[in-house]
Structures are given as C-alpha cells and as structure tokens.
Amino acid sequence: MAHIDAGKTTTTERILYYSGYTRSLGDVDDGDTVTDFMTQERERGITIQSAAVTFDWKGYRINLIDTPGHVDFTLEVERCLRVLDGAVAVFDASAGVEAQTLTVWRQADKHKIPRICFLNKMDKIGASFNYAVESIREKLKAKPLLLQLPIGEGKTFKGVVDVVSKEKLLWNPNSDDGKDFERKPLLEMSDPELLKEITEARNALIEQVADLDDEFADLVLGEFSENFDLLPAEKLQTAVHRVTLAQTAVPVLCGSALKNKGVQPLLDAITMYLPSPEERNYEFLQWYKGDLCALAFKVLHDKQRGPLVFMRIYSGMIKPQLAIHNINGNCTERISRLLLPFADQHVEIPSLTAGNIALTVGLKHTATGDTIVSSKSSALAACRRAEREGEKKHRQNSEAERLLLAGVEIPEPVFFCTIEPPSMAKQPDLDHALKCLQREDPSLKVKLDPDSGQTILCGMGELHIEIIHDRIKREYGLETYLGPLQVAYRETILNSVRATDTLDRTLGDRRHLVTVELEAKSLETSSLLPVIEYAASVAEDLSRASREAIENGLHSACLQGPLLGFPIQDVAITLHSLVIHPGTSTTMISACVSRCLQKALKKADKQILEPLMNLEVTVTRDYLSPVLADLAQRRGNIQEIQTRQDNKVIIAFVPLAEIMGYSTVLRTLTSGSATFALELSNYQAMNPQDQSTLLSQRSGLS
C-alpha cells in the first residue's frame, strides 16, 4: 500500500521475478507488468484494480495483493486490508509520507494490521533516507525501527547494510536483473567508519526494541548488558517480530525496486516479521471449530467464467463442487471450480486450506463483504458455542449478526454525473453493464433520479468515473454519454417552527382522520436523519404501528427540502399532539405527518449546506501564488501551508461545486508539477450571497 507512484507495482513485479514466478522483469512504463493487466492500467501506467498473486519464498507461501494508490480507488485498499494479515507500506524516499500514504496508513490502523515500511526509489535524485524516516516518525506517529541503512543515496546508491546481522549487501552493478548480490560481514579493516555507524545504529535499535518488549529487555539486561555486540541476530529478530505484531513499532527497510536493489531482503523481512495467519487471533474462529468460515472481499466478472469471487479462508477448507451457505444473503450456492489467483492467469486447484486467498467460480449471489460458511447448521452450531461462551451476558443481538464477520466499509461517493446510452434500446444493456460493474466495485453507486429519470453515477472522483466510462465502452461495447455532474447539496433550517395539519378522507365506508401538531428546530450537532421526540402526552398511547408510520412520514418528508428538493439534515422534530380517528390506516398517518412537516419547513428560515472537500495540494514554491489565487476564486478556505523539502503543501477546504475539473486546471497552472488529494470533509452552510446565486441558477433565472 502507498501513495500514487511510490513503486508498489514495480516492487510486486520484482518480488514475483525473484521468487521464480515470472521469467522476465516487467515494467510499468512498458505496460507489461503482471499485476496491471487491464488495458486502462497499461495505457495509463497506474493501478486501478487490486490484483492478487500467490507465490512461494524460501518455504513460505505468500499471498500478495498489489493495491492502487489513487484516492479514487481507496475501496480497493480498504477491502484488501480487511482480509490480509500484514502490509508493506512503500514510500518514495525523496517525498517521505505523502497525502495518500496517510490515508492508507489510517486504513491499516483501523484494521489493526502489522506493517513493514519499504523506502523505495533510494536511487532517485533527492532521495533522503533520514528525511523519509523522520516523516514517518512525525506524520504517521509511528516508531521506525531501522533494520537497514543505505550505502549511498541518489546516484551513488549501491546497496544496503543489514543492521541486525552487521553485514553489507552489495548488488553487482553489471547484472541486469539484480539476482546476484553479495553479503559481506563488515570488518574493522575494510570499512571502519561504516562499522562504527552500524554498531551505533544496532545499539540504538536494541535499546528501542528493549523499551517496547519486556521479554527482550530482560534478556538484554541479563546476559548482554556489558556488550550488545554479542547479542545474537536471531534473538533480535524474534523481538522485532513480536514488536511488529504488537504494532508498537514498524521495521524500516530501503532499496530501489526499479534498479532491482533491496527486494530480496524485503521478502526475507516479510517472512520474518509479518504475521502468519496462525498468529492473527480472530475471536470468532474458536466457535467454528475447524468448520469453513470465509469472507468474500472482491468480485470480478470474467467473460468466459462469469463472476469470480475472491475469498479469504479463515478456517476449514474449500473444495470444488462444495455447497456453501452465504449468511448475509441467507442463500446456499455451489462452487463449481476453485482457482488460485495469479493476476489474470488462474491455476485450478483441488482444495485450499485456511489462511489462503481463493478464487471461486459459480457463485452468482455473493457480493463484497459476505460471510461464507459450509452450511446453515454449522453456522447455528457456531452460534450456540458463542452463546455458551457467556456472550449472552454482554450482547443481546440477533443470532445471524453475531456470526457475520465485519464486512467491508464502503466509502461515500463524492463525485456525481449522469450517464446515458446512445439510444433507449440500449438502456437494458447499460443497466446490465452497470450492475456487473457495481458488483465488482461497490464504491460505484448507480441511482435513478426520480425527478429527471436519468441514471446517475456516483463515484470516488473524476478518474474513477472516467475509467468506468472507458470500461463500459471496451468490455460491453457501449458508447455512453456522461452529463454534467450534480453536487449533492443538503438543506437545513435555522429557527424553530410549529405547524398543524388535519387530514380528513373517506375511502369507501372508512373515515380516515388525523390531526397533527409538530415543531421542527435546528440541531447543534450534525445528524443525517431527523431526531424525533414525542411529547409526554403523545408517547403514552402510541401503538408500535402508528409510531413506525409517523417515523416513515417524517423521514420521507426530510428526503426533499423546501428550497431545492435536496435532503434535509440537522433537524430535531417534536410531536406535540396527535389525534387519530379509530380505523384510520397507517398510510394516512404517514401522509398527514409528512405533509405537516413540509408545511413547517416551508415557513422556516432555510439554509443550504454544501459539501466541503478537504484538499491537499503539493506544489513547488514557484507556483504557490497562482495556486493560492485560483483557490481563492473557488471560495477555498486555506487552513495552513506546510513546507515539505522544496515543496509547499497547501491544506484547504473547498466546496465540491467549485472543484469540478480541478485536476486539469491545477496541472495547467503548475505545468503538471503539482499533485492534489481530495476527501469529503463535511457539509457547511453557504453564505447568503452564494446561496441566492445558486437558487437563481437552479430556478433558471440566470
């Protein structure tokens, strides 16, 4: 995982080559890497989909997933971290921690994933090992454990020194593929200065680990307190392993994947310090007692095979022709074939055990985040075991819920546009294509706009939508048109208003009569759904059905605000009185309450809230002023300007409405040297001037 262009795919490519799984070294620039196999990825030189690869290294089986770096594809990182046991964070040694590095680091923190840092691009001009380590310490608030130091930086980068074993690793400069490198112990005679530096670094490392690990501290203080040099490397390695698993510190390695240096030691570190599936203890495993339990985390559509479902097996084993039960969908399906993922070439296998990542063919209804078990009865048995463990005392939730593994959190879309087929006859084909793409990529949401009848694509950014558009054209042969993007505003009220309403209808021989009095007022805190309160006199004699009807009515009234028809948020509603004639149907109660609330909202002082984006622009000093001037035009609110080596990092809040097409403008302003990262921050009230401009635009007056 890493920021854009830190070198994830190149590192993956080298790892596959050295582990003997590929015969030649691919290159992102030539578009022939294993894990970037989509046409769009090869053309653009970026990763779009995460690709899984299985390989072996020195007797260990490793499942590796190469993830994208762009913020638009953040879901790919999220769902892969959800099922993996460890992660390698790749850094560009000249830039240190960048915007997206922070995002993926936070995602790994959320899933409690132990990780290793790999400072890549040590051969790049301006690469600085110390700067990168310092930025990990400051920005990620992590404790870096320096297990390697580089020999030379930038053009002079030749190899690395292993701090743990006090050896230097030099790569043969004439070798094309970096397979042959030599390990030499550091000697007093040949490199006295380097040896001194490494001894100091090793002592510092030992002290650092001893602070974090009590068992190691006892060992150091007991046997080796006089001379740290005598401490065996194995003892230090097991201690680093424990500290990494406890996530109190992160091992740091360095190298240059493009120049084939430092990748083999990285693989050794992965097997040595990152956890095996047996070392991650998941509390639900004890209840399954070796029965199958897996999580589906990704779906791909294959033209020949249909939907392919990626699963992480937590316990038990999977075989072809096995019937499985999907707890989320409450349905039973049969796996027709079982494959081992290898980017886009898959290998068929007879069975797969716990801890692996499997690719299954034949599951039609399984989606991202579903929990898979062998049968309904095994799920119930696990549930009973969980109850026996005294679970009943703590949580009173439904049986199915306790068995579900936590699914995958899907980020909210921030970018909206309309998509139209070339003709109405093609609409069913477009619907089918979008349905398949949505199953593959849950961060893409497709909605039908009830007012205009248009199909709306909601995605994570411009690039995301562009790729989807391109895929529809290439994979489904449909030329579609993208329309202008609509910003999802919200509305709220500023004061408190009361309203009463009576609904009196006679349908057939039944009279429906409801009288409501309610008050709507603005909330201090932010809440998407209305907060509903009942006056004491009303709450006493409300039946459950009426209460549901009232809540439905209030929620539906809040879906369309009085100003522009956008959803209402941050509103508290108090029901003061409610008179219901006997025999009145619940739909009539809903309708009356809904109409009454709309009446109240129309009378209130209304306010439009617009989505604010948290924007981080990295730009060189020369271009700082034009970028700031442009942000000011876009109603941007500059929070701070940080310095990162020669660059300035502008942190600002900018309304989403003003950010359309920003990437192109920013590149033009800075001759392509600036980068930016966006995420939805929150909704903020528009000032009256902007609000009236927006209203006149929307009503077609301007």
UniProtKB/TrEMBL annotation:
Gene3D superfamilies the record matches: 3.30.230.10, 3.30.70.240, Elongation Factor G (Translational Gtpase), domain 3, P-loop containing nucleotide triphosphate hydrolases, Translation factors
Protein origin, superkingdom: Eukaryota
Domain Tr-type G: 1-278
InterPro entries from the UniProt entry: EF-G-like_DII, EFG2, EFG_II, EFG_III, EFG_III/V, EFG_V, EFG_V-like, G_TR_CS
Predominant cellular place of this UniProt entry's protein: mitochondrion
Compartment list: Mitochondrion
Protein task: Mitochondrial GTPase that mediates the disassembly of ribosomes from messenger RNA at the termination of mitochondrial protein biosynthesis. Acts in collaboration with MRRF. GTP hydrolysis follows the ribosome disassembly and probably occurs on the ribosome large subunit. Not involved in the GTP-dependent ribosomal translocation step during translation elongation.
Name the record gives this protein: Ribosome-releasing factor 2, mitochondrial
